[in-house]
Amino acid sequence: MSYKLPTKAVITDAGFASRFLPITKTIPKAMIPLGAKPIMQYVVEECVAGGIKDIIIVATHEGKPIYEDYFKNPVEKIYKQLESQGKLDRFESVREVLSLANITVIEQDPSLPYGNGSPIASAKPYLNDDEAFVALYSDDLIFGEGDVKTLVDTYAANPDAKAIITAQEMPKEVWNKYGMIALADEKKMTLSHIVEKPAKPEDSPSNLTSYGRYLLTPEVFAHLVPGNTGLDDELWTVDAITKLAKSGDVIVTKSKGKWLTTGDPKNYYNAYQEFIKMGE
Prior knowledge:
Layout: E1 8-13, E2 33-34, E3 37-38, H1 39-49, E4 54-59, H2 63-72, H3 76-84, H4 92-98, E5 102-107, H5 118-122, E6 133-137, E7 140-143, H6 147-157, E8 163-169, E9 179-185, E10 190-196, E11 208-216, H7 237-245, E12 250-254, E13 258-261, H8 265-277
Parallel strand pairs: 1-4, 1-6, 4-5, 8-12
Antiparallel strand pairs: 2-3, 6-11, 7-13, 8-11, 9-10, 9-11
């Protein structure tokens, strides 16, 4: 079955973010800034650049009002103060946030098990049954050309695919930290399976790393259910994608940008250094 091109994206930030405590006891992890913008805004901007402006952010109970305030509060008091000072040009960045996209913020379904697949499963009622959608982890940043456009363009060229995932070549020193891709057909770039955090370099099927940029069809929800937990009794998105690959093609496409994770303080620092280097 073919599905329509995606018009919606799901961005997840519903974890505990314990590696960033104590700051994340007060704000969601993706609200930590790069420059004057939070990480989440860069992820939203990547969706918009890829032609998608209808976005569902999946947050914790505590994070939901923070995201709603950031993307929807017109802060009239600040506007009036800047207007009285003749400094309305400073408010332009706020206008850009408010008009960036149609954003809906939801909470993760508490009945679902822990795992990075649960926020995506929580968004199912907000998605269309007849079209694909894009799913993004908010702690993954793409510098340069964003992956959302690459995902959508690849799906347009492969409309019968069950899913599209982006990948980046990584040195073997870090293969044990990520999901490593095994290809079923190297010429067609179709997925066989993903080896999650291989213990030794020789256990990795390739140097291609999978990360949080996916185009998924609604068929994925048959696998994102509580009974399908995997490693550490968590519900994994990559497990669901691997199951999709058993019933049809899952296309692997290399990122046209540069992927960096911000998921822990050290990698966040590295991403900030890249941010400064690129003059963002």
